[in-house]
Amino acid sequence: MIHADKAIITCAVTGAVHLPCQSDYLPITPDQIVEESVAAAEAGAAIIHLHARDPIDGRPTTDPEVYGQFLPRIKQQTNAILNITTGQPGTFEERMLAPMRFSPELCSFNMGPMNAALFAMLPRYGDKVKHAWEREFMAMTKGLNTVNTFEGMEYIARELGEKRGVRFEFECFDIGHLHSLKFIADQGWVKPPFFIQSIYGFVGGLGANPAHVLHMKQTADELFGDQYYWSNLAAGRNQMKFITLGAILGGNVRVGLEDSLWDAKGKPARSNADQVRRIRRILEDLSIEVATPDEARAMLGTKGADKVNF
User: Fold this and answer.
1) 182 — phi, psi (to 5°)?
2) Which end of the chain has fewer CB within 10 Å, C or N?
3) Would you say residue 268 lies in a domain?
4) Are residues 280 and 254 in contact, defined by beta-carbon separation less than 8 angstroms?
């Protein structure tokens, strides 16, 4: 692992998993996404990770026209690195529409398939939905697999990486995903330094066990040596303790309402910025300095905000 002097804070402001019925504070409209992103950047997030939602009912969308309603505005109001997902629900072609059009500095890059299990939330939220699609969305995940084939990975690497100069946040939901990254690196599709995001506590992925954090780092060290930056995120109540553990081990951190709707036990998060401020305080109490957006750019080797298409 590359041991940097400062830690990068990423904030994932809305995501595609949490539903409007779960939180009144989840940003839905472009205005809300802009407001939450700007506040998170002002609080200390160097990277803003972005999904899009239908402004009317909050369902996840891959429509580039919706992305176009908030990307330029966030760029104008912050210096943060904007990271567009390639993992939004939809076909592979649909998931690539916004990244291909806008050519951001950074994109997420899922390193393998993922079986979401939102259907398990039906007993708790099935009668509390704000929109009919929420119940349907939860139910259909029982038969849903988020497909990430090697063919798709090569396409992302060629079209976004080689042709558009996009750098990647390699999202690893399991140990095997690290080996997949090593495989595509050996094929020459992607090049270091790698920005690896280890993920814990989502059903269908690696469980929330502190031993897994150590295993992730040990495996990544064996595979990539000093050619990667490491970051961690965790679902729900596991968020802060797992990313703090990762930070103590020298990693970077990710927070945001995509990953957790909680600010503390029994206390719903009212904003993304609150989570950024909380982890920033923890980092600084641990004598870990927080990287600015330009420092994060230098670490990750991004092309710069002046070379995106928005």
Assistant:
1) -60, -40
2) N
3) yes
4) no
Residue 249 burial class via C-beta count within 10 angstroms: exposed 0-12, middle 13-18, buried 19 and up? middle
Q: Residue 89's pLDDT band (boundaries 50, 70, 90)?
A: confident
In a domain, 129, yes or no: yes
Distance CA 49, CA 254 (A): 9
For the entire predicted model, the pTM comes to 0.97
Q: Is the pLDDT of residue 265 over 90?
A: no
Count of structural domains, the chain: 1
In CATH, what number is assigned to the domain containing residue 238?
Answer: 3.20.20.70
Q: Kindly report the CA angle at 176 between 170 and 177, in degrees rounded to 5?
A: 15
Q: Which contacts (CB < 8 Å, 24+ apart) does range 207-214 have?
A: 208/234, 208/235, 208/238, 208/242, 210/242, 210/245, 213/242, 213/245, 213/246, 213/249, 214/249
Pairing of strands 6-7, 289-290: parallel
Q: Which two tokens stand for residue 62?
A: 């891959």
Top pLDDT among 144 and 297 is at 297
The runs of H, that is alpha helices, within the chain are: 30-43, 64-67, 71-77, 92-95, 97-102, 122-125, 132-140, 150-156, 163-164, 175-186, 210-224, 239-248, 272-285, 293-300
23 in a domain, yes or no? yes
Mean pLDDT of the chain: 96
**pLDDT at res. 145:** 86
Q: How far is residue 5 from each of residues 90, 114, 252, measured CA to CA in Å?
A: 39, 33, 11
Q: Three-state DSSP class for 123?
A: helix
Query: Omega before 55 cis (within 30°)?
Result: no
Q: Is 1 within a domain?
A: no
Residue with tokens 């704000």: 130
Two tokens, residue 190: 């992607």
Pairing of strands 167-172, 106-110: parallel
Which domain covers residue 104, as residue numbers? 6-307
